[in-house]
Amino acid sequence: MTSETPPLDTTPASPITQRKYRIATEIVTVDNADEHGAASVPIYQTATFKQKSATQMGEYDYSRSGNPTRSHLENHLAKIMGAARAYAVTSGMSALDVITRLVKSGDEIIAGDDLYGGTNRLLSFLAKTQNVKTHHIDTTNSQSIIPHLSVKTRLVLLETPTNPLIKICDIPAIAKLVHASCPNALVVVDNTMMSPYLQKPLELGADISYHSGTKYLSGHHDLMAGVIGCKTDAIGEQIYYVINATGCGLGPFDSWLLIRGVKTLSVRMDRQQANAQRVAQFLEDYGFKVHYPGSRSHPQYELHHKMAKGPGAVLSFETGDVGTSERIVEATKLWGISVSFGCVNSLISMPCRMSHASIPAHIRAERALPEDLIRLCVGIEDVEDLLEDLYAALVSAGALQDQALEEKLNRLALDGRDAVAKRKD
Ligand SMILES: Cc1ncc(COP(=O)(O)O)c(C=O)c1O
Ligand SMILES: N[C@@H](CCSC[C@H](N)C(=O)O)C(=O)O
Q: What sort of enzyme, by top EC class, is this (predicted)?
């Protein structure tokens, strides 16, 4: 697709009320006017497109510039994100890379003090190599942005909820402050944790909303992708220019996989967050400090629910001891030890050892990121199995006392060792 081609109108409406379909319907309804009536969007696995003549160019010429499978995905994403334009690129980091290319040497970025480790790494790289300074602030206090706003401010980069401390910021309030004093600044929201099903930053005042499509949008950890949604065509033009110039557009097969994955977003998310709610409650009942916007104890519970339709399925909790946390993570069986989130399978990780290990230890300490923090990404399994597995891990790690279960777990471990020894004999 060329930068001039407007997205297809993919906004069907209810025949009775004439209003836009509800988000769960929009998510699963991928328009596909295929000439053969293919039920699934075809994969245009091609680098080039033949032209009618030397002077008459078709809609597509080269897949770096545009590909019909990617266009289908992008039109669909624009619809569900409420974006004028949406673009699909090769990873979430690639999406942020494209966005930060709108920043020039001497400009400044304002970002949170709790944010994904890879984002922190890219911002540090820009500071070292491009003379682009980032001010890291506590985004939970909207006013804390004011002293840093200036003519140099080009991007204000927000996560809400943040990864991994699940802090919430007030998108409308911050966007208002930024737009009032810095007309050239763009408010950019990393909406990976929520997905457009739960939260639509562009409708809350953001100029750009982006996602790691690797996570909820695809849902199965079988692809890497990034998605950029733009509030206006003018911003979309700038973003498209960078994508075409740098060549990071998503390939046809991954575009197809992402179309397939996104169709089940609402059912996955409903189930995942229902499970997460139970897991958060379970941990709170045992006295752990839990970070989850579905918990009434979350300091910004009200604010989060003003902006989002649900709490999502990522939560973190503290045990008070790094060794205990390591033992818990290693004792789980159903919860896979893995970075990332948004997958249908449940995952457990220690951010300071894994996803946020690239943030130097002294900066993690300055930003009060607890070293013992455990992050849970809750999947679609039967929640009773998830709770039993977590309970057994907490007991076996010594975080909870249950002598009968401890003895049983020890017996099972010994039986297991005996069985292995017998097999070797
Ligand atoms: C909040 C958040 N944003 C962006 C990214 C980057 O996405 P990707 O891994 O697809 O590059 C990640 C994780 O990797 C993330 O957790
Ligand atoms: N080795 C990777 C770690 C990726 S972390 C992925 C995800 N965003 C998460 O929060 O778990 C890296 O250093 O980038």
A: lyase
Residues pairing with 377 in the sheet? 314, 347
Q: Please list, in sequence order, all residues whose beta carbon lies within 8 angstroms of the beta carbon of residue 313, skipping any fewer than 6 positions away.
A: 269, 272, 273, 275, 276, 341, 342, 377, 378, 379
Using CA atoms, how far apart are residues 73 and 55, in angstroms rounded to an integer? 29
Q: Considering the domain boundaries, does residue 199 fall inside one?
A: yes
Q: Is the dihedral of CA 136, 353, 258, 11 positive or negative?
A: negative
Question: How crowded is residue 289: how many other Cβ atoms within 10 Å of its Cβ?
Answer: 15
Residue 3 domain-assigned (yes or no):
no
pLDDT average, residue stretch 305-319? 98
Domain range for 403: 265-424
254 Cβ below 6 A of ligand 1: no
Joined tokens for residue 338? 């893995």
Per cent of the chain over pLDDT 70 is 97
User: Is 278 tagged catalytic?
Assistant: no
Residue 6 has pLDDT above 50, yes or no: no
**Residue 241's CATH number:** 3.40.640.10
Q: What is the pLDDT of residues 275-293, one digit of tens each?
A: 999 999 999 999 999 999 9
* pTM for the predicted model, two decimal places: 0.94
Question: Does residue 210's CB lie within 6 angstroms of at least one atom of ligand 1?
Answer: no
Q: Where are the beta strands (DSSP E) in 255-299?
A: 289-291
Classify the C-alpha dihedral 403-406-408-411 as positive or negative.
Answer: negative
Mutate to test the pocket of ligand 2, among 93, 114, 159, 340 (most ligand atoms within 8 A of CB): 340
* Closest ligand 1 atom number to CA of residue 94: 11
Both tokens of 18, joined, read 């004439």
Tell me, using a 6 A CB cutoff, whether residue 339 lines ligand 2: yes
Quote the longest CA-to-CA distance of the chain.
Answer: 81
